[in-house]
């Protein structure tokens, strides 16, 4: 069924997955994900929309690359910030490292999430919950993608 491409690109071609979900405790703020699971890497873009969208236009955010440690899969992955914006960098870096370690794949994360519209204005707890939810969703999708690879 899957057409094999012989020039070394993905087979079957990886389709981006787009989904969104509300923040666990702030249903008016939604996280939007654009995820591409490749055989050799993961590409994830994240942003938020809030009920009150009149607030300042969303900035470009940060773009981070994290690489798992092949010799020691439990070790902290190395990360490189490819594009830096102070409000979004920490979240992008932590998330890229978690995903690289949990999936064993090099991971790119573009993040322009804002928790400012969250119930408590974006506390550490709200960020952690948001990140936990993103990790859960991404790992489920990566698991599904690898099952499809195994099954063909
Ligand atoms: C991978 O982890 C091992 C053990 O912690 C460490 O010695 C090594 O330097 C790490 N490699 C990289 C590329 O971080």
From TrEMBL:
Disordered: annotated segments: 1-20
InterPro entries, sorted: PAC4
BP terms from Gene Ontology: proteasome assembly
Protein name, entry field: Uncharacterized protein
Species this protein is from: Coniosporium apollinis (strain CBS 100218)
């Amino acid at each position: 069924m899957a057409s094999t491409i012989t020039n070394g690109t993905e087979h079957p071609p990886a389709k981006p997955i787009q989904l969104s979900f509300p923040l666990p405790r702030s249903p008016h703020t939604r996280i939007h994900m654009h995820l591409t699971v490749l055989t050799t890497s993961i590409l994830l873009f994240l942003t938020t929309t809030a009920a009150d969208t009149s607030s300042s236009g969303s900035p470009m955010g940060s773009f981070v690359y994290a690489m798992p440690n092949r010799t020691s899969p439990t070790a902290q992955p190395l990360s490189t910030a490819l594009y830096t914006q102070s409000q979004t960098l920490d979240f992008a870096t932590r998330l890229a490292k978690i995903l690289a370690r949990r999936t064993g794949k090099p991971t790119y994360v573009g993040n322009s999430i804002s928790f400012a519209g969250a119930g408590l204005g974006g506390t550490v707890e709200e960020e952690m919950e948001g990140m936990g939810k993103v990790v859960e969703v991404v790992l489920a999708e990566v698991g599904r993608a690898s099952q499809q690879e195994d099954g063909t």
